[in-house]
Design a protein that fits this description.
- The complex is a heterodimer of chains A (about 325) and B (about 100).
- Chain A has about 325 residues and is of the alpha+beta class.
- Chain A is about 30% helix and about 30% strand.
- Chain A has two domains: about 140 residues, no CATH class; about 180 residues, Rossmann fold.
- In chain A, strands 1, 2, 3, 4, 5, 6, 7, 8 and 9 form a nine-stranded mixed beta sheet that branches. In chain A, strands 10-11-15-14-13 form a five-stranded mixed beta barrel.
- Chain B is globular.
- The chains are: A alpha+beta (about 325), B alpha+beta (about 100).
- Chains A and B meet through helix 7, helix 9 and helix 10 of A and strand 2 and strand 3 of B.
């Protein structure tokens, strides 16, 4: 017979052993990559369930990555770290080590399991999930990008820009037929068809590409966007859905809404500024560089001058 | 460093970069610090000729033929470019030919 706890939290489990810690678990699935998060704090599990909304999914019986969370009041007691330090990600033999002033995480690449030591707030795990997914994506031909994104007419549109260029405003102004994926961090990954087209296009192939209109459909849309729970000023998670990527826009504030063409090289230069990547690792940097250059040869990337009004959505179809 | 001295040197592309031509522009990223470099046509010609076996002077002569540039100017421009990329570890510079094995290191 199920306990009341399991009935009221269908996506959670709770072990009854008194000797084991990490009693509470819930699966947070982003980009179809489920991570089972374990904690010994019922309250923190509740907080995560509330924060990650529809990204908390049914537990998977197998093939699940796992992250254990341990709380400390002060990381200096444990690691002697400066609590104001910025995030650093390094790749050691078989593992990633992610550190910031308020947390330290390790991720074992062979077992796909990790541990996170943090203070009891949701900001640390949010940062760790962003970094972990940016690393997963770097290895599989995708990326996280500072961008709002949305689905309209079955296609995803990504709006990349620095803070203050209108990502959240654009999201707020979205008409009813638009499903918001995020107003802050967008998730871009290759489709199974895109993955199948590896190895990466040769230089000659890149030079000959000017657009996607003359390509077979399977090659023309080799990237897709997923919703993420990473929210900006909108302060709510995106929808947990995906769609093939239609266009990526680089946001720029202006007096009138309009779309401007960009060369592939300019598109790559601008897009690289917005891609989230933290690791000091040569192979991963190389992979992200190649992915972004592949991306701009396959997906239309244009500048969207945004005047801050809802009519901008008339251009997004 | 003077032009005469530098022109006797050999240059080679570092292996610690990712590089690709995109829309006719050479884009190079240092994998050490993620710094991005965009090369124009002349700079791309120098980059592609930096095989460790060709001297900078020979490369500058090719530029003169290709782009109708005065030899002294071509060498000065090539020198400035090489110094800049070498400073970021993107190009290797040596007074001896640079072997392929060195490039792999």
């Amino acid at each position: 017979m199920k306990s009341l706890l399991e009935i009221s939290h269908p996506h959670r489990f709770a072990m009854r052993s008194l000797t084991r810690s990490f009693l509470h678990g819930l699966t947070i699935e982003i980009g179809e990559k489920p991570i089972l998060v374990r904690t010994d704090s019922f309250d923190f599990a509740n907080l995560l369930e509330s924060r990650y909304g529809e990204f908390v999914t049914e537990s998977k019986p197998y093939d699940v990555m796992e992250l254990k969370i341990e709380f400390v009041k002060d990381l200096r007691d444990r690691f002697g770290k400066d609590t104001d330090r910025e995030v650093s990600v390094r790749v050691e033999t078989g593992r990633w080590v992610i550190e910031r002033g308020d947390f330290r995480a390790e991720w074992d690449l062979r077992s796909n399991r990790g541990c996170l030591t943090q203070r009891a707030n949701p900001y640390a795990i949010d940062a760790v999930l962003r970094i972990l997914h940016s690393l997963f994506l770097a290895r599989t031909g995708g990326f996280l990008v500072h961008a709002a994104s949305a689905v309209r007419n079955g296609r995803a549109f990504v709006f990349a820009g620095l803070s203050g260029t209108g990502k959240t405003t654009l999201a707020r102004l979205a008409p009813r037929d638009v499903a918001l994926l995020t107003d802050e961090i967008s998730y871009v990954s290759p489709t199974p068809e895109g993955r199948g087209s590896e190895p990466k296009p040769s230089t000659a192939r890149c030079e000959s590409r000017t657009g996607d209109s003359d390509l077979p459909e399977s090659l023309a849309r080799p990237f897709q966007a997923f919703g993420t729970p990473f929210a900006g000023e909108l302060a709510c998670t995106g929808r947990n859905v995906r769609a093939p990527l239609g266009s990526l826009f680089l946001l720029q504030q202006g007096q009138e809404n309009r779309i401007e063409a960009l060369s592939e090289a300019e598109a790559a230069r601008q897009l690289l500024r917005h891609v989230l990547f933290f690791a000091r690792d040569e192979e991963l940097v190389r992979a992200v560089f190649q992915t972004v250059l592949d991306f701009v040869t396959h997906v239309p990337v244009r500048r969207l001058v945004f005047a801050g009004d809802a009519r901008v959505w008339e251009l997004i179809t | 460093m003077g032009v005469d001295h530098l022109s006797a040197l050999y240059i080679a592309r570092s292996r610690e970069v990712a590089a690709r031509v995109l829309g006719g522009e050479m884009m190079i990223m240092s994998v050490r610090d993620s710094r991005l470099f965009n090369l124009n046509q002349v700079a791309t010609m120098i980059w592609q000729a930096a095989d460790g076996a060709t001297t900078l002077e020979e490369i500058a002569q090719r530029i003169c033929v290709e782009y109708d540039v005065e030899p002294g100017q071509a060498l000065r421009d090539a020198e400035a470019f090489v110094q800049e990329l070498a400073r970021h570890g993107v190009l290797l510079v040596s007074d001896q030919p640079i072997q392929e094995r060195t490039l792999d290191d």
